[in-house]
Amino acid sequence: MIRARPQLFRRERGAALIIALVFLIVLTMLGVSSMRTTTLQQRMAGNQRDSNLAFQAAEAGLREAEQFLRQAALPRFVGNDGLLQRQDNGGLASFWRTYDWDTGSVTAAAVPGVAEPPRYVIEELPPVQAKGDSLRFGAMPEPEFYRVTSRAVGGSTDTVSILQVTYRR
Asked: Is the pTM above the cut of 0.70?
C-alpha cells in the first residue's frame, strides 16, 4: 500500500527574505541618520564650548586691563605697550580684526584651555568736562575715560572673541 504523503515542503518563493532585507535597509538608514545627527550635535556642542572659552578669556583680559587702570599713576599713552591715544575708528570691529595684536597689545595672564593667552589694548579717550561745581568741594575734577579692547581665542585659534568696555577713572 502506497500512501500519498502530504506535501510538507511547498515551493518557496523567498518573500520572507525580501521582507527581511527591506527591514534591514530601513534599520540601516535609521542608524546612519541617528549617527549623523549625533555627530552634528557633538560638533555644535564643541563649537559652543570653544566660543564660550574665547568669550571667558576675553573677559579675563578686560578684567586684567581694568586692574591695570586702577593703579595710582598711569604711564603716558603714546602707542607703546598697548597704550594708545583714541583711535578715530570709533571702535569699529573691522579695525580690530586687522589690528596687529602680536606687537601692539599687552599679553594677559594665561587662561587654561585656550590656545593662546588673551591680549588687550587700552585707549585713552579725550577728557570730558564736568557738569558744574560742588558747593562743598568746589570744582569737580575731569573724569578720565579709557576704552579697553580685549581679544582672545578659544580652544583652537579659529574661534576669536573681541570685547570692549569703557572704563571711567
From this structure: yes
